[in-house]
Design goal:
Layout: H1 15-35, H2 42-51, H3 56-84, H4 90-104, H5 109-125, H6 130-153, H7 160-185, H8 191-202, H9 204-222, H10 232-262, H11 271-294, H12 297-302, H13 304-310, H14 328-346
């Protein structure tokens, strides 16, 4: 049996991030060694390794988590020694108390784990005295401070491009799924084709999650970043575009599922279905234009006339005359979702 262990990432960590991590670790060791002589500055180096993050904002959060975890862990270890003396079993007791403390205080998983690690290290590699506890806390603060300075000086990248790519892919896939639905409505699909159509539509949910995460990481990368002014406007436009694309996933999946559940081949070729299929093709056309221009204002300005002419194309009125009563559920649902899709595309 072959084990597939996820030990490798699909992409490499950016080179600048690797350099920052190495520089922060070395400087934290050197600075802590100068300020706190006579001890190996392990806590400072570990703090620097943890605090260095892809964005300055994330580094602040990690610095706080790391410092809080060390302080609580060192205090727990110190309290255990003062209460019970130096006993080998205190390592286990302090670890359990640290874990419970993190749970009681409702701390993040990182902070809770750091409490336990710090308590265990203090009891394992040093005498838990008040002086030793103060030194370890001071050393951790040095490492965190060094990491923050390095992360601010060596500017982390703004993650705007991944957000734009993820949003563009989501928009293109949504347009493709709308076209697929229009194609199916224009024929006589069998059950397997309808099932495949629904399966493809549901895959949009994963793309929506990926795009949302990319937007969030992009926004985080702007915080405290000296180059943020060059990217903020574009990223804000991308985030606004994602806000419009987000609900389309629900609409497309809903339309596809209704078609799968309610389709009857007697509807094929009827004026109402042909009209809906045509409007779906127009919606896919408009959605591709929206993704093409809305995310890039400079291109939109240069091609303003083209955009004004082509968007929106959903302007032709439809009339549904005398369908059979059992067909109203499908037709009504499709028309309502189509109306909502149009509103999102044209920004109404």
């Amino acid at each position: 049996m072959r084990l597939n262990l996820p030990v490798r990432s699909a992409t490499r960590t950016p080179l600048v991030q690797m350099i920052k991590t190495a520089v922060a670790a070395v400087l934290a060791w050197v600075v802590a060694g100068l300020l706190v002589p006579g001890e190996f500055p392990v806590f400072a180096t570990v703090a620097a390794l943890i605090v260095i993050q892809p964005s300055v904002n994330q580094s602040y959060a990690k610095a706080f988590e790391r410092s809080l975890g060390v302080i609580l862990g060192v205090l727990i270890a110190l309290g255990a020694v003062l209460a019970f003396g130096e006993q080998s079993w205190l390592v286990l007791l302090a670890t359990v108390v640290a874990i419970v403390s993190g749970w009681v205080l409702r701390l993040t998983a990182t902070s809770s784990t750091q409490i336990a690690i710090s308590a265990m290290l203090v009891l394992s590699i040093g005498a838990a005295t008040p002086e030793y506890a103060v030194i370890r806390i001071f050393e951790t603060l040095i490492g965190a401070a060094v990491a923050l300075v390095i992360n601010a000086l060596i500017v982390p990248p703004v993650l705007a491009a991944p957000a734009r790519l993820a949003i563009a892919r989501l928009g293109r896939e949504e347009a493709d799924r709308i076209d697929d639905l229009a194609r199916v409505l224009g024929g006589r699909p069998d059950r397997s084709e309808l099932d495949d159509l629904l399966r493809s539509a549901r895959e949009l949910r994963a793309l929506r999650t990926t795009a949302g995460d990319a937007v969030q990481r992009g926004m985080e990368s702007l915080a405290f970043n000296p180059t943020r002014s060059r990217h903020r406007d574009q990223l804000n436009r991308d985030a606004a575009l994602f806000t419009r694309l987000d609900p389309l996933v629900t609409r497309i999946v809903g339309m596809t599922r209704t078609t799968r559940d309610r389709w009857d081949n007697s509807l094929a070729g009827t004026p109402a279905i042909d009209g809906i299929a045509e409007e779906l093709r127009r919606a896919a056309h408009d959605l591709r234009l929206l993704v093409r221009f809305e995310g890039d204002r400079s291109r939109a300005d240069q091609a303003g006339a083209e955009l004004t002419e082509e968007l929106p194309a959903l302007t032709r009125p439809m009339a549904v005359i005398g369908p059979a009563p059992e067909q109203w559920i499908l037709l009504g649902a499709l028309m309502e979702d189509l109306r909502r899709i149009r509103e999102e595309i044209v920004g109404e």
